[in-house]
Predict the structure.
Amino acid sequence: MNPKQGKLQIIHYRDKCIGCNACVEAAPERWAISKKDGKAILLKANEKKGIYTITTHVMEYEANLEASKNCPVHIIHLKLL
Ligand code: SF4
């Protein structure tokens, strides 16, 4: 596929987040740490049964792939749509 086209879906299984900050370091425009519970927030995501998802531009793929790879508990999943 042409990497400049298409959409990227990011899925965050937030329950198991340990708040290590690796996703924020890799993709600071898409991730932040909550001041309330210390876990990561997938910015602007929709929540359903504790699972957060967002569909965004594929331009975010590289940074979020790094976030996904660096997440020690493997709770950041990516899908190219
Ligand atoms: S890298 Fe994974 S465990 Fe660490 S804060 Fe981000 S989502 Fe949570």
